Fold each of these.
Amino acid sequence: MKKLLLGMLGLVVLVSCDTKTEKKPEEVTATEVKESKVDSFPEKKVFWGDTHNHTGNSFDVFLFGTPNSTPEIAYKFARGEEVESPTTGKPWKLSKPLDFLVVADHAELLGSIPLMYQDVPGISDTKTGKTFLDIAPNKSEKNLQKIYDILNYAAFDQPNEANLTAKDLVNDIGGEKVMQAWHRYIETAERYNDPGKFTTLIGWEWSSNNRGANLHRVVFMPQGGDVAKQFIPYSALDSDNPEDLWNWLEATSKKTGAEFVAIPHNPNISLGLMFAETRLNGQPIDRAYAAQRMKWERSVEITQIKGDSEAHPILSPNDEFADFETYDFALTPDGARPKPTKADYVRSGLKVGLELEEKIGLNPYKIGFVGSTDAHTGMSAIEENNFAGKGQHDSEPSKRSHPTGIGSSKGWDMGAAGWVGVWAESNTRQSIVDAFQRKEVYATTGPRITLRVFGSFQFTKEDLGAHMVTNGYSKGVPMGGDLYKPTNGAAPGFLISAIKDPDGANLDRIQVVKGWVNDKGVAEEKIYDVALSGGRTDGKTKVGNTVDLKTGKYTNTIGAPELSVFWTDPDFNANQNAFYYVRTLEIPTPRYSLLDAIELGIDYKETGHEPTIQERVYSSPIYYNSIKK
Amino acid sequence: MKKLLKEPLVHFFLIGAVLFVVYGLVNERSNNEDIIVDKEDVAHMAELWQLQWHRPPTAEELQGLIDRYVEQEVLYREALKLNLDHNDEIVKRRLAQKMEFLGNDLSTMVAPATEENVLAFYEKHKDNYQSDYVYSFKQIIFTGDHHQNPMVAAKNILKEKENLTAEQLKEAGDAFPLNFEFTNVDSFYINRELGDGVAEQLKTLETGRWDGPIVSGFGVHLVYIEKQIKPKIQPFEDVREKVTADYEYQMENDGKEAILNELKKKYHVIIKSEAIASKELAQNKTE
């Protein structure tokens, strides 16, 4: 009897599948108000999150061989639950939960590649679908990489093996056809949003790769599914020009009431385009461009797995800490590693902005800083001792000596970074997005260092201490704020406090990075060591290094658990526009590649990377404006 | 017997048997060479089209859909006759995936998240729905920045506590940007702010007096616990959503695993590779 019953299984499958395709999407209880009490912090609290996480709805995640990655797993993982890793199948868990997450899948062909392999009519039987299934009938790693490469050409109308055009992609597997996946994603985001405990923000990624230049923007919003379902996310297949994206955001915002935040990432592989002096069409940047850009893009993702974009040692030769997780593998198929230009790094980009302001009267690059992962695993796992990799190809230590398929990079070229700290009154969608709009946000390369920065012409040394936060808000502006020409000619003062990650390493130092534009209209930069641990008075004295290269352990016997300082700019000129941002460094700790080498029993030198790093946080800048308010 | 009836696997087979009969009744065509496209089939195609395109297909498009359906059916049946489905990686994966879906579907059929089931689940796993410890406390901190040995410094102050006023005790710690008082904070919050394991250490302290020292991510602390609220099991109404989610997750996993284990019993797995450690081979022995 048992045998007979087992034999019937196959038939059950047939029946069950028929019913499956007919299943209507569930009704959403989207805007249903959650009853849980939401804690509120009038003097704000730092909430940690990742605004840039990819799941299997992203064509590249799927094509890199991680079809099991879902938004559900991404949310579960981020809120601290143990999940089965979509890349390796092994259990994986964050050391402590995040407070919010934006699943930002590529809008281009959102969810279409999975549907194509599920043989969904209208997708798999189109010209594009058929061509792809022809070229890659099975999902072998090689085949999927092939599709990925073709897509990267076809999407931007470059010649490709399949002879497909961007228009083919839109008509066949893009455009309206992503609606199903978009709606399913929205419903999941709504289900996992838990105000006060864990916030999910609805968003996506606009992935323009204009001639191989990474011009991607992550876009998200505080509104819920009822608003998000009124549009289909704007993709680079609609246009690869950011100005068109902003126009669309403007129009869609008017039409639906959505409030958008757009964040560009990886200027380091933008091939000179992220902070350029010209528009994409080659025309010089004008006031209108600057105003529009500043309306939608008030911050930049300064650090993430594909490298740190704060500064480059060639562009900032006097900054001994500039060479941090430098990553220059362009997304072009030729494996190029182009030389950095000042448009490719954030600090030099801010300087370009100051110079442009002199010329056109408005700064197009007056931006705050955000860190996020850009993980293509569905897991926001970027702690050095818990790194899940960029994607399938570098998901395990043993794979990391091999190429990743992303530019000419290898696994160990990826950096385990970053997250964003947000100063908000409560852990809710609106409160978090408001903080992004105020630029009261900062970037970390991993550790959850609490960083407070206030600027004012009214502060004294006494404002530091127990009442620093109250004084900071009442007499000054927090990170992301603006200062204007003082009446008394005094220099601006800053209250800065950094507290180590309670579960991490001690702090080495606090630095202020200043950029200003001189009388000739040329921007300059200088770094001040404003607080040093261990009683040092000269920043040239290194903090030391306790990392044991055999065990990968470090101790907190050097550095300080907290550093705070009142600092006044000794070189202030009231007639020069300037920015001030804070960089706080940890003592040296093991890079994940060292821990990998220990696990694999190889010499760390084989990873091609230094064994230890100094993790850091970057505050959003406070700007000094040489005009009266 | 009653227990047997509750076994998901038994349900699985019973449902399978019922479906088999039903399937046989409505799908007489499956045993001969006819390809019949009936009203329902066409309606189904049109519906799928509508779902995708948000409009009904035109007559021409519908004809195209039907033609394609017939073509596919012919090729599919011929392919089956030639056994082309055998040992095809894509077919294998797809079928394996279907079996997994089936497990999920069955678990929702066998054990749907009804009020009754969810409540029973809650009763059985009550311990998972306890609230955290909640504390109100004061703390002072001693860090390595200010003391050669912060532990000794803290212990010395604790010894002196009877001779110190409340104000003096408060000032005895180091200046540190951390609250002196924490009010009604739960273990999750305490560990988030002070470091992993701090809430566990608070459990060891007396309430109503200065006690310690305990160690946080920042240094050594003396703590005055004013109030400790012990965990209690939260009422079902307060955690209903979480229980439902947990229940569904658990049922899906259980179902999947039970079915796989049962099916595995039919096979004897032999792995002939020296690359695999013998430890991993041991899994077969449990079958």
Amino acid sequence: MNRPTHAKAAAPAIELRDVSKEYKDVRALDGVSLSLAGNRIYGLLGRNGAGKTTLMSVLTGQGFHSSGEVAVLGGNPYENDRVLSRICFIRESQKYPEDFTPLQAFRAAALFFEHWNADYALQLAKEFQLPLKRRIKKLSRGQLSAVGVVIGLASRAEVTFFDEPYLGLDAVARQIFYDRLLEDFAAHPRTIILSSHLIDEVANLLEHVILIDRGRIVLDDDAESIRGSAVTVAGAASKVEPFVAGRTVLHRETLGSLASVTVEAVLTDAERRQAADLGLEIAPVSLQQLVVRKTLAAAEEDSATAAATVMEVSR
Amino acid sequence: MIDESRPIFLQIAERIENDIVEATLAEEAQVPSTNEFAAFYRINPATAAKGVNRLVEDGILYKRRGIGMFVAAGARDRLRARRREEFARQYVQPLVQEARKLGIGIKQLTDMIESTYTATQDTTEGSVAQ
């Protein structure tokens, strides 16, 4: 892929500075700062209720934020047509007028999206075996998701958000989505934000990963740097513990005299040999495993801080 | 195909190197474009590009502007020399370690290697032996 090198591409596509959002007594976003360069595929990962959808709503001008600054393609998206006409947001349960057919939904999209490609939409609809003239209300859940995926891809918007776009899509349809996304992204580079629970499925598509947990950014790094950034060391506890001493522990399991400890570490060849000599096993950690460990570690840290606060208050 | 727990660009670079060592990719042959790699392995195109660029920096591949990437002359010999250096550590050391663990003596081990080497010679010689 050739990245455009002209100056325009250098400005971040999305920028958030210390953005928070409160619903009554819940902090949905808590001091989020991000700077996302254009023409990349980002994975927005996190548990249910972590703040992914809230973040995307703020970025697409569909919700207010309580404090902080938001810029998408250089402007505040809220009620800003100059920005909104260049972004596309496909929600998990996207609503369309019930009496529309997919074909009518596509025609409506054509009016809205500057770079809409009608031929491409029809080609995709065919691949997803979407009945073009059936009313939306008669479509299955998977077919409804396919309508969203087709609109998201064919819009060719400068910034496209897919929020868990595949409810009801079977494995074959999801694979078609991933393949077409990669292919069309290569031909028409643009910024894609893909929110997903199916981390193993999408991991290889992503260039950059953002992990959010309870409104806070836990991880913001290139997927390639994350891969191989942690290892699991297993063996006799008496040998594992000295080996992992001083490293950030993400997870620890013990069974009798055996221990298995996941640490953040890129081991050198010398360290790997040392581990082998000690009879330790070194196992790689996948992106999905790492995301799970990071999320749980963040939660643990939080409850530890909370406990410390409680203790201080009660003192 | 792709191992999820190691940087993918390294795996792409290794696969291309492998094809060159096995002479599947001849010297001066054109290698697929990064977008073709991305589509084939179902990976991000920037990741594929990183793997290919690593080999360009290393002088294993070279770029012809507007045409594509090609295997450099002498690339195969250089890669084979490098792999021979790593051979003892990567393959012999674990082999000997495991043999010791199982109580296989040096004589038995060399006999096993010899018979395996002879038995497989015909099938692999074409591309490997000089």
